[in-house]
Specification:
Blueprint lengths: L21 H4 L2 H16 L8 H4 L4 H19 L4 E3 L5 E3 L1 H27 L3 E7 L4 H14 L5 E7 L2 H10 L5 E6 L10 E9 L2 E4 L23 E5 L2 H11 L4 H4 L2 H11 L1 E6 L2 H10 L5 E4 L1 H10 L17 E3 L8 E8 L5 H22 L11
Parallel strand pairs: 3-4, 3-5, 8-9, 8-10
Antiparallel strand pairs: 1-2, 5-12, 6-12, 7-10, 7-11
Length: 384
Amino acid sequence: MKKRSTPAVMPPTAASGEIPDLRRVVSIQAAVTFNRFLESVVRAGNRVADIVEDTGAANQSSVMKQLTGLNNRFRAATGSDLFWKSEKGQWYSTPLGDKLYNVTFAIEQQFRPIERWIGAQAGFSQLRIAMNAFSFHSFVVIEREMSRIKPTMKFNKHFVYFRSADVFENIKKRHDLDVGITESFNSNIENDSQLDVVEIDGERVSLLANFDISSDFLDDSGMVHKYKLRELPLIMGDTKSFLEYLVTIIEGQKVSESMAANDIFAYVQNTYDIQETSQSIQTLMDMLLLETKNLSMLATPEVKSHVLALSGNASSYAGKELPTRNIYVYNIDDGGIPLRKFALRRRVEGDPVQKEVTDLFWKAAMRLSGMRHRQDPVRLKRTF
């Protein structure tokens, strides 16, 4: 299995370096932008365009201008870059960039209470949401429900992206995060002293392919035989949820009881024809649509909808005159087991204005859960 990892050889300017006088090179705005870049783009594999709103910048060009300026100032002061981009378009941090993140994270932590106080004076709250890259649509649904419950509520949104397996722990330990959305196929639920967790959605996974799959792989109803997935050229999100799907649902293995985390990766690597893995869903969609070789991928309804909108329509594909592949959609005979979406809330008492928006988020999540299950909230058991 191809894993995204930091190359063994760094660029010439990627030495560890020493951090200069921060007052001369790092503003609060630069600290926030750098944090979102490291968390969402470098570590979670998202695009720079995905962090524009959360940095307060006007557009992607403005974000890159801030980051480039910060990098240039550190290069002039230390001789080292903070980050760099590979030939494949993936962003990486240098040792100095990782060191700076510890400092800029502390700067943002100190700034957030002031920002929230200022917002409260103006009648605005700040809602900071931890999520994985596949869960933005779920937040949109919750936000729409929040507007129905209290149309007059005004709040600013800040998204912090993690891999699905990391959302749970980060929302517990990071005080700058209020709520979260994550996903899992695992059905083991137990109480947690720090978090409220409620299931808000369940999505069927489809198989997308840029070629017409042979009937030998399909049953009489046109579904892909689940064991035939082993023989298809797969690209996949490097996330615990999709690995869980392949191992627990398709293979029938009990991940939490009999397999360690490293064993899951090894099992998938040895069992499936994995062509590429990536933390960036955009990278995977680009490969499926643009690569000339035959590929297939597991996809949620949100990803499926986005890919189909671009399929066979080069003129509308990000402004590029590139031919896109026709995409075929197949259901999998997985017994109809969904990818489960969960909303999370940290159990802390904040200022009244802040608590109001957090409680509104939770009320909307509970309402969505009630529409699906008509049952009490559940709390997620961490099995990863």
